[in-house]
Amino acid sequence: MTRFIFGTACKPKLAPQLYITSLLVFTVSIAVFTAFAELHQNTLTIDATDRENWAYINLTKGETVDIADPASSMAWDLGFKRTEVIANGGVSGPGKTAAVVLKDISFEDVLEAPEGDYVSDTDQIATFARGDGWYTYTGPPNHWVLPNPKVYVLRIAADTETQPVSPYYYVKFRFIGYYENNETKEGSGYVSIEYELQDDGTRAFVKSVTTSVEATGKLTTMWAAMKLK
């Protein structure tokens, strides 16, 4: 009868100085990890009708978020209250959100985020209120709030778990409406925005190329000889 011990065949002694050699082969398979860098395109409508409380959004998640303490939270990027808009940076929050405004260029033609000149909220003025602000108020008789034709580029804190090439994500962003029904201008306080967020840490607003990282395991071969007497 043949017995197997730890994968090695052992036979009864048949002759002196009989050697049985076993080949033990250990293999580690090849693993390929693919990282998908993506240009996120999104349109959001934020209910900013409350005149007392802010409505917060997270641009990476593409949704509104409930924030208990905005002064210490990194979970929001922008806050809205009627026509007021704040960014999570500077005096408004602990985040790194800052913006630069681009004029005389269409949203589609912004293919790369500027390298510098980003500003955050200060005690004197919020980022989106600088210059002539993000909107125009028409006054009587209509009293409409109409978004100005500007493109903002935002720099926000990156998700460190994804290990981007920089500490920031870049977002091109514009306001597209202020009403629940923007055609009839009914239901004010509903701020609509359009944005594209590049999550690979670069400043390019173009489709990213899928990247792959290959981890190749070693093929290790071990010979073991057992002498049976």
In short:
With 229 residues, this protein is mainly β. The protein has strands spanning 3-5, 8-10, 18-27, 31-35, 39-47, 55-58, 63-65, 78-81, 84-87, 98-102, 135-137, 145-147, 151-157, 168-181, 186-198, 211-215, 219-228.
Description:
- With 229 residues, the protein is mainly β.
- The chain has no helices and 17 strands.
- It folds into two domains: 39 residues, no CATH class; 172 residues, no CATH class.
- 0% of the residues lie in helices and 46% in strands.
- It has a five-stranded antiparallel sheet, with no helix packed on it.
- Strand 1 and strand 2 form a beta hairpin.
- The protein is globular and about 50 Å long.
Describe the SSE topology.
Blueprint: E1 3-5, E2 8-10, E3 18-27, E4 31-35, E5 39-47, E6 55-58, E7 63-65, E8 78-81, E9 84-87, E10 98-102, E11 135-137, E12 145-147, E13 151-157, E14 168-181, E15 186-198, E16 211-215, E17 219-228
Antiparallel strand pairs: 1-2, 3-17, 4-16, 5-15, 6-7, 6-8, 8-9, 10-13, 11-12, 13-14, 14-15
